[in-house]
Amino acid sequence: MSTKTLKTAAIACFVLALGGILLGGLIANRDAPPYPGSVIGPDGETIFTKADIIAGQDVFQRYGLMDHGSIWGHGSQRGMEFSAVTLH
Q: pTM for the whole thing?
């Protein structure tokens, strides 16, 4: 194979891979569940709002909490059990 053919094949693979990633991102964004405007308790009081959910998600992602606790099924082997601490 010539260098030009290899270069063309590499560029084509890159473009196809990038297109697949972009398509997957668009599909994931389209199918994402909506955030509720607010959650109202049985007594009519607002428990939390959309802004509270987004702020909590920001903290969760900022501190990398996906690697801790029972979220991945590790229990407390990899860090503090945040869900158990919150509940108790």
A: 0.49
One domain, residues 47 and 77: yes
Residues 78, 49 share a domain: yes
Residue 43, phi then psi, degrees to nearest 5: -85, 0
Name beta bridge partners: 49.
38
Kindly report, residue by residue over 61-84, the tens digit of the pLDDT.
Answer: 887 776 655 555 555 566 666 666
What is the 3-class SS of 16-79, one letter each residue? Answer: HHHHHHHHHHHHHHHCCCCCCCEEECCCCCEEEEHHHHHHHHHHHHHCCHHHCHHHHCCCCCCC
- The token pair at 64 is 């990398």
Any residues with CB less than 8 A from the CB of 76 and at least 6 apart, and which?
69, 70, 84
* Structural domains of the chain, count: 2
